């Protein structure tokens, strides 16, 4: 089965691209959503996170304490690396199980902002980088994430792998710049992927 990765920085429109693939009947693995699920339900992972970051990692009712983990790890590169090194192997296993469960599909798509940072690209056959100019991304994010300031958004973008590097490493680029039509770009890729399976 062909495994296609979709990546790009915050605000480029990865989810929109994946929704088009989903409408075409292709199974989509949303790494961010699944990571949150795994962090709530994988008992071994919960123990590892508690051991590494303290009992504040989870609330009394067993829910992930995202605010605590963000405050503890996000601003410290070493702690963030530790957090990722604990979480990513569990998400990788979850992805492998999900692929096995979707083995009748012609191909699958994995959406992941941290495709390269998490080494998830190694599990993919091809990568699509979604691109949007910085001003378009910031405008979208200010409209979508009303709780964030422009400074917050720029800080998040600054921590992610540069778009130029993502585009250079990808086999395909989809431009979501509000100038080029998105659906024809995705349809062309869909047809290309189907021709390979």
TrEMBL record:
* Tagged with keyword Transmembrane: no
Q: Which pathway is it part of?
A: Cofactor biosynthesis; coenzyme A biosynthesis; CoA from (R)-pantothenate: step 5/5
Give residues annotated as binding ATP.
11-16
Provide the alphabetized UniProt keywords: ATP-binding, Coenzyme A biosynthesis, Cytoplasm, Kinase, Nucleotide-binding, Transferase
Q: Which PANTHER family match?
A: BIFUNCTIONAL COENZYME A SYNTHASE-RELATED, DEPHOSPHO-COA KINASE-RELATED
State the function annotated in the UniProt record. Catalyzes the phosphorylation of the 3'-hydroxyl group of dephosphocoenzyme A to form coenzyme A.
Q: What is this protein called?
A: Dephospho-CoA kinase
Name the source organism.
Pontibacter populi
